Please model this.
Amino acid sequence: MTTMELSDAEVAALLAEEAGAWLLKLRDERGFDDPTALRRDGDIGSHRLIMAALRQRFPDDAVLSEEGEGESGRTGSARLSASRVWIVDPLDGTREYGEAGRSDWAVHVALWKDGALSDGAVALPAAGHVLSSDAPPSPRWTDRRPRIAVSRSRPPALVESVATALDAELVPMGSAGAKVAAVVLGRVDAYVHAGGQYEWDSAAPVAVARAAGLHTSRIDGASLTYNNPDPKLTDLVVCRPDLATRLLAAIADAPTPPTARKE
Model:
């Protein structure tokens, strides 16, 4: 990978795109006879490619990666005093990556700088998309029954109540990146999650969603923050801005709404 003279957002997009291309090649070469090995090697290989590129261009920056160990992993402490931290999920939607024909998996690369997310990119390699905070698409939603993206494997129970309150359709999907991208692209109206995640699951998607003018928050309406000592970030809401008030109210009124603050 080479990054030349690019902005941070352009670097994020390039790294996500090139790691995604490598993952597609690995998938094509290996096939799906051993999906467990494919998923493992995809995760590790994509992490190594992104890490090597970041070390070459930004040797002084800190990294928080799902596949990282030591200072680049969840127990690292150097990032807590760093001014620049790359938050990476080298393969979001590992389950879907190992299934033939599925495109709802992603590569996430985000930059946290001076206390807040500043840049991010989400590559959807099998779908042919790279979404960047530098040039996000302008979502165009139709006047329709609301559509809410939810986890394909772990849909939170409260979303059933929310869907009933809003007369919404639930749309199961794979990775968090794919679900947020569906909102950014106007294919669904919201993504609600309350089943447990980490910062790398949402940092890059949230950076892109914010740049596109979407609402992003915890399920109780609190702000999403990153580069915390504990990278667990259990819940989030991403939605079209005109739906946010109704959606958060429906979540609050759910029979047994989870509490964002208890982790």
Remarks:
- Confidence is low (pLDDT under 50) at residues 259-263.
